[in-house]
Amino acid sequence: MPGLRAPTRGRYNLLDRVALPADLKNFSIDQLQTLADELRSETVDAVSSTGGHLGASLGVIELTVALHAVFDTPQDRLIWDVSHQAYPHKILTGRRDGIRTLRQPGGLSGFTQRAESPYDPFGAGHSSTSISAGLGMAVANKLRTKQDRHEPARNVVAVIGDGSISAGMAYEALNNAGGLKEGAERLIVILNDNEMSIAPPVGAMSNYLSRLMSSRRFMTLRDLAGNLASKLPSQLHRTAKKAEEYARGMLTGGTFFEEMGFYYIGPVDGHDLNQLVPILRNLKTQDERGPVLLHVVTRKGHGYDPAERAADKYHAVAKFDIATGIQKKTVSPVPTYTDVFARELERLAQEDPCVVAVTAAMPKSTGLQPMADRFPDRVFDVGIAEQHAVTFSAGMACEGMKPFCAIYSTFLQRAFDQVMHDVALQNLPVRFMVDRAGMVGADGATHAGSFDLNYLCCLPNMTVMAPADEAELAHMVATAYAHDSGPTAVRYPRGAGVGTPLPAKGEVLEIGRGRIVHTPQKPQGKQRVALLSLGTRLAEALKAAELLEAEGVAVTVADARFAKPIDQALIDRLASENDVLITLEEGAAGGFSSQVLQRLASTGGLDQVRFRPMNLPDAWIEHNTPAAQYEQAGLTAPHIAQTARKALGGGKA
Q1: Is residue 414 flagged as an active site residue?
Q2: Which of 42, 62, 185, 386 is catalytic?
Q3: What percent helix, strand, coil does the chain show, rounded to 5?
Q4: Considering 300, 313, 347, 537, which one is annotated as catalytic?
Q5: Which of 40, 394, 491, 551 is 20 to 30 A from residue 266's alpha carbon, by CA?
């Protein structure tokens, strides 16, 4: 990046020679291994100063080097699924000098991003999209080459982890690719197996077989054998074909992918460049070979001792000391919202054996781990499969269980049809715990919880709550537990609460009833403003009230508590008793404010009060601190006060 220079330049002989992947083309395999060692050190050094997803990146160092050494990126398309593991890729593709701006305001994204580099052909932040996108690119290239003989044919490589390939979308793409007659000939799917035991141990024999099976000689012989077998009587033909498939399947574990229509190669040691480079070269030079799945086995955190020793392999880390691996985490005396949910859920599970919990591959991050430790048979991690998680929860609700389905807001989007059709339409009491609602900081737009109010509030039968502080969250968990007459959702933000003392246990709230938290001392004769907040903007609303009251404005502040059903009586009162009514929400336009507007429009309230909704803007807010993101969104106390002034006629237009 202009104006930046990596502080490690001069430390790494080979890495300093790499400006772009083309610089790797003449490196020997021994040099590539040295480069991989240097790249690993550079990645650790960079992430130690920024934090981020370290373990996955360390696990694909050798694979990243091999891919860029063999393929002609960006002409050949390289897609990283989720892209947690793309930091080494960014370093090798012209972004080394900016890598220490990773996830920082105005710096590099923590994920691949099309606008950031031509070497990022597809943006990713959610999982299991790479094969679908890669297949689309491969088919488009096939069509383009037919239309224009000067259009070059390209390889498309999709790298997907064993966790991501557990999601239904990945299998849909595999099924489509394997069944295509044309278009998938140059698609290579690399299964990065770093956790699951889905294959035999990697050894010399399996590596030898993988090299053999990827070679032109083996593919040609296999085609010849296939042609010969096709001349045999049908019974013998079928027997010969199955014998070949199952023989290779027993050695390599690839029968399943073969049945999907892919040519399977593996497993291969993903840290051995002597194996990776020849295999990738074989695959690159095969013409019209059909879709291939290359199975590589790697280890998260590989090559950095603190990561290898950690239970989570340093999947996501704060800034840390390189020598010791000790993370520089800020310890807050205030519990996080996730911690409060975890406490209340564990208490409810102890009291009621019908309480169960479901998550999609994130038991620790969503707060389910404490319950899982005490009641392991009642916590279900279904993998990266949000759609299944929702309908699985619905099935348990059918049988009288009380499921809490804990999924980040950004990931629950992926299961909207299941929330609608399998839960809301059938009015099943599934309790959705929607974590990371609103702005999320360094993960940026891909992970922001901006839209859950929109896609939940539009559904009949759905009850939607948002706590203003951690004590309110405790009450809302209790309310969701007690509500058996339909589905509920509680949305709450990432990070620590505001310091409100927690109750001994949550109390059940009246459904659809808000509360007034501040009233003016002497409202008579003054301009009157009502601030109706949903969620944790309540603290900013109270600050805005102080600013306005210092100017002689009478301000009422209310906590809506419920986005649906709304407190109609409270809205009617605020509209009738004030000159201006402002709603506040940490979500996109069309959520809570639309519910309020509908009420005002249907009752004539809009004739009585000047209504002003405040919500997230119609724009993507990139990575920054949450505080800076809300400042950018215009949802802080000064913005609220200025909105009130304009509505009263005293502010600048």
Answers
A1: yes
A2: 386
A3: 45, 15, 40
A4: 300
A5: 40
308 in catalytic set: no
Predicted TM-score (pTM) of this structure: 0.86
CA distance 284 to 188: 9
| CATH code of residue 562 | 3.40.50.920
**Measured distance CA(106)–CA(108) in Å, rounded:** 7
**Same domain, residue pair 542 and 643:** yes
Number of domains into which the chain is organized? 3
Q: What is the CATH number of the domain that holds 444?
A: 3.40.50.970
Q: Which amino acid is at 567?
A: D
Residue 458 belongs to domain spanning? 337-491
- pLDDT per residue as tens digits for the range 158-216: 999 988 888 889 999 999 999 887 889 899 999 999 864 333 334 554 454 456 556 65
Starting at the edge strand found earlier in the chain, the sheet holding 355-359 runs 379-381, 355-359, 402-408, 431-435, 488-491, 463-465, 562-564
Asked if 129 and 217 sit in the same domain, the reply is yes
Write out the binding residues for thiamine diphosphate.
84, 125-127, 163-164, 194, 304, 386
Cite the DSSP H helix spans in 27-182: 29-50, 54-59, 61-70, 87-90, 130-147, 168-179
Judgement on whether residues 107 and 233 belong to the same structural domain of the protein = yes
Q: What is the largest CA-CA distance in the chain?
A: 99
Q: State both tokens at 2.
A: 């202009």
Binding residues: 84, 125-127, 162-164, 194, 304, 386
What is the 8-class DSSP label of residue 99?
G
Say yes or no: 122 and 182 in one domain.
Answer: yes
Do residue 122 and residue 175 come from a single domain?
yes
Those residues of the chain that have pLDDT short of 70 are: 1-3, 195-254, 288, 650-653
- Told to judge if 507 belongs to the known catalytic residues of this protein, a careful annotator would answer no
Q: How far apart are the C-alpha atoms of 412 and 579, rounded to whole Å?
A: 38
Q: Can you tell me whether residue 169 is helix, strand or coil?
A: helix
E strand or H helix that includes residue 580:
strand 580-588
